[in-house]
Amino acid sequence: MMMQVDVVVIGAGAAGLMCAAQAGYRGRSVLLLDNAKKPGRKILISGGGRCNFTNHQAGPHAFLSGNPHFCKSALARYTQQDFIDLVDRHGVNYHEKTLGQLFCDESAKEIVEALLTECEWAGVTQQYQTEVLAVSKGDDGFLLDTSKGEIRCHSLVVATGGLSMPKLGATPYGFKLAEQFGLQVLPTRAGLVPFTLHQAEKDAFADLAGVSLPVVVTAEDGTSFKEAMLFTHRGLSGPAILQISSFWLPGQKIHINLLPDLDIPAAIKGWAEAHPAQELKTVLGRELPKRFVDKLVELGQLVNKPMRQYNERELAAIANLLRDWPILPNGTEGYRTAEVTLGGVDTNELSSKTMEARKVTGLYFIGEVVDVTGWLGGYNFQWAWSSGWVAGQYC
Ligand code: FDA
User: Fold this and answer.
1) Nearest CA owner, ligand 1 atom 37
2) Is any ligand 1 atom within 6 A of the Cβ of residue 159?
3) DSSP, residue by residue, 165-198
4) pTM higher than the cut 0.90
5) How confident is the model at residue 167 (pLDDT cuts 50, 70, 90)?
């Protein structure tokens, strides 16, 4: 039997759940479809199982997009405070970790449960393990051929997310659907992702796996982040590296300030005066992980001797290395471990007010499938909530 609803939302992730509930509250009959067994799988694993669901500092500055202005409208109309109010209404306890990042005290499950409760209150019908086989458009809406039968709807919302974590069921379906309807899709690549190193560096740093240090890391476009960097068995990770990976292109170097809180030349001069008999390794070992300092000496990047034996030129060279430790990544770990997908449905194709496709009445794209990608720290969920909420007011 053919099913007829006002709105079909494809994808019961962060953006789809939010949008479905909002459309339901407007009195629209809504069917939320997903090819997975359950909703919100990425929410469940996010933030180490505690879901970093938004950020106090969320704003357009924290998003990458071909059109940096596009996200402004949705972020202003459904803010981090709006989502915090929703979380409060559902009695979810949370805390601020660092840099404005809000995490559940208990479990990410509470966020999924809150959104499912909203969907229930709004009368949304949900259908899982459903493949959309084909979509066509007629004068009065869309016809979907799915693995569970045909569905007609007036509005179709695509909330299928990005390509990261294919193990969790990520598919390029949303991009394909956009192309089917003649919308431009910008090239995609993995973002918020660890770097791999070339073999020589990988071997050299492998025994530092687990060592972490605060740094300022800068990309070639000048973007920089001050957070922790972590050595792994495959290369470099940690928040600073994940952040900068979204601004990195193959072949480019990243530049790492290893002592971001110090005026390095002045500090080195001070150490040389205060501890002339101590070796550089000893002095630096008080500021940086000892194993890392030993490694820099082992690799010949630093020459170790008593501080009094360095001349001015040598002290300046040490300062330069510590202020700008250059790394040429081999690549990234790709979609397998990436948190997000950069690129996607071109924002020029969409209304920033409604998220509706300019060329196709009734077709909406929300969340990560759109070319709007946030920094690490709860920004990507905020985009999912904001874009889902605005589309829910119109679809
Ligand atoms: P999302 O991926 O949530 O949902 C898409 C849905 O569409 C899925 O349910 C999927 O099954 C479904 N789907 C896909 N193809 C389909 C098809 N062909 N047919 C039917 N259904 C289909 N962000 C953040 O702000 N804070 C955080 O703490 C984290 N942590 C984090 C950890 C990890 C490991 C990852 C991989 C990602 C994060 N993120 C994050 C990013 C965040 O999870 C992501 O940006 C949002 O989930 C995007 O929301 P969407 O609703 O757009 O896609």
Assistant:
1) 339
2) yes
3) -GGGT--SHHHHHHHHTT--EEEEEEES-PEE--
4) yes
5) confident
